[in-house]
Amino acid sequence: MYTLKDILYAKSIAVVGASNNPDKMGYTLLKNIADGGFEGPIYPVNLKEDNILGIKCYPDILSIPENIDLVVISVPAVIVKDIIKQAGEKGAKGAIIISGGFKEIGNYDLEMEVLETAKEFGMRIIGPNCQGVNYTANKMCATWPLVKTQGSIGIVSQSGTIGATIELWAEKEEMGVSCFASLGNKSDISETDFIEFFAEDPNTKVVALNIEGIQEGEVFIDTIARTSQKKPIVVLKPGRTEKGIKAVASHTKSIAGNDKIFTAFCKKHGVIRANDITELYDFCKITAMSKKLKDNKMLIMTSSGGAGIIATDTAEEIGIEIAPINDKLKKTLEDILPDQCVLSNPLDLTGDATAERYEKALKAVIDDGSFDFILTIFGDPIPGAFEVINKVKSESDVQIIVSYLGGGDVEEQEVKLMNKNSIPAFPTPERAVKAAKALLQLKI
Amino acid sequence: MYTLKDILYAKSIAVVGASNNPDKMGYTLLKNIADGGFEGPIYPVNLKEDNILGIKCYPDILSIPENIDLVVISVPAVIVKDIIKQAGEKGAKGAIIISGGFKEIGNYDLEMEVLETAKEFGMRIIGPNCQGVNYTANKMCATWPLVKTQGSIGIVSQSGTIGATIELWAEKEEMGVSCFASLGNKSDISETDFIEFFAEDPNTKVVALNIEGIQEGEVFIDTIARTSQKKPIVVLKPGRTEKGIKAVASHTKSIAGNDKIFTAFCKKHGVIRANDITELYDFCKITAMSKKLKDNKMLIMTSSGGAGIIATDTAEEIGIEIAPINDKLKKTLEDILPDQCVLSNPLDLTGDATAERYEKALKAVIDDGSFDFILTIFGDPIPGAFEVINKVKSESDVQIIVSYLGGGDVEEQEVKLMNKNSIPAFPTPERAVKAAKALLQLKI
Questions:
Q1: CA angle, residues B361, B367, B371, in degrees to nearest 5
Q2: pTM
Q3: A304 vs B161: CB contact, 8 Å cut-off?
Q4: SS3 (DSSP) at B210
Q5: Does B316 sit within 8 Å of A244, measured CB to CB?
Q6: Which domains does chain A have, with CATH numbers?
Q7: Which residues in chain B are contacts of A310 at CB distance < 8 A?
Q8: What residue of A is the nearest CA neighbor of B250?
């Protein structure tokens, strides 16, 4: 039997159902694989075309002159089984079946036949009825949207849309992902296979998981328990409410299960639970960039008093301690900061704060050693913000989390720079504080 | 005595402390007033310059050949009083004092003297120690950042940063604002004056309020009570926790007050309470575009099953009812939708849903009449999404709220189009549902 790794590291791809019509999925898939920079040969398969997007096209898989590693399929459900058979004969190790029309509309037998055919050749299946897979280290974007930036978040998502949303946000902030995989009907490869892969994958630092129901519960639980010892896992599992459970059942015919048990399981293993899409993204971002925090005492340093208060309220509400600063630190800050600064926690550097003032204050707080992490809020476009944080970070062990707001284009550029350099930066203080809380839940 | 309106509709502006040095506030202020397209004369005042940004410069206010309506001041605190006196002699109706160095660092007397001087001439003061004011209908951006898009949110904010963040987000989504005002020390003009102004302002549809403490509590409460009968008010008032209250006291020397009493007051008058910056923005956006909802039954229509479930969980958790669809509607939908669609609430149009499929389904739900509002989720870049929603909206009374996600550039363009056409569109289902809840709290 081949493995998921054989699919993700495919050296050649056939796209069956490739099309010259931009409205067709087969066009988008071929285009994204090509534009994503896939380095091996790409073989469009379409009976009626000579070439698509300038790439020579074949009438069927068997006409392809070389063996193929992977076949991406977007054709009607009824002919998928034959395609799999041909692919198997060409030595394919796996198939990504985008096509719908299987279990999700009651066609259980058809899905089973496809799976049995694949098994004869040792082939592995992702899907059917899925949005495909992007593995950036292999420049293999066999899905949509086209995302090329290599990052360290490995996404495996029941919902194509939710996974793609995370991936697009990561791309926009120039942080990227290692992988985006959408599971569809999970006839063969499931979230468990991906989690196992991510656990050993050098390109993945954090596992982002969106699941609805769980198949093979014991294997899943065992895999999560083992992987959470190695890498942070963030999970978005909707179906927390009665109506939500019903919606899960309608969507993937799966059982959401008892939410309280799942919550307890997550807590036990340091799995971080996200309640919505924004949290899934924020928690992945911060765990990809930061280490576990030792205690829950946070110092807030800000140029915006108002933003500092919002951070304080949020922290108090979710159990992060805004501990007072001690007299010695206060004395030091008094000596180095201008009179208008408010020397407490939040430490308000006031509206005219420069990068230099932040640097002085950060160094004083770090030297003092009372705080394990610092939320640094920039409430205006402050030139040199990134440089200061990057310098201070490289010289100390203290975790710095950034909230940059009110900064327009400067903010956007600085946030990208920070994210690229493993400084987690958030658009609002409340999101930064909630993300810090996620770090506190890690066991590793 | 002049009024706030005289300041916001100023016909000429002197910028005292204008500078040729881009690092100075006086440069930014002059540049934003000029680049914002202010149509009256602008007079930079600086002893040492002949012209700034190509505009003739004057050594002092008294040398300006014409009378002036408004003076924007960014000079050291000690000379502000003299500037006010000269401005008064030139007929100025008001001053925006950006300069700090007054009450906030203990200089109460200096602040009082400035105020007394202004009073002699009937002049009104915004600030000192504030981030200025942008009134887009008069193209008067006497603040930063530069934001020109005219919209219908009137922001009055204790915190310059929080107000500016809302304003920047509104600009980015091409929705704009009517006003952004930062209050600073509130020596004269307070949030109450702005709320009174917004209540009658034809350019403002919703009042966005960020306050910490309240001065003149009775007048404030009376003003809010009256204004909330005319226009939606959304308020972000931090200081909900013990540490938050302390932070408020350090920041603006004001008293946050008893949060429970404030919450009860908001509830009584249909004032919408936002807990953070994102909510302040989302709640303003939806109330600027939508009417009060009659009941809390929501239909979720989606192309992404996963996003539909997240919307369902969120709705259940905050008390919005995801009511089942009746048999008659189900029968209708069965006739017009393909087999793979899931005919319940959420109504899952599935991943290959086209704009046409949305249109058919929306019309059927509207004709049925069981739902007062519909959350429409687009889980992929769907060409024509905006056109369909705009058409359906123009033909019916049902409130449509949109969540568009996973759509990259297409999503960004479509969301802008929707917002411009008063269709509230949000980047995640959870934000859309929480915003819908805000609509339910309105009394008007």
A1: 85
A2: 0.95
A3: yes
A4: strand
A5: yes
A6: 4-126 (3.40.50.720), 149-289 (3.40.50.261), 298-441 (3.40.50.261)
A7: 162, 236, 238, 276-277
A8: A342
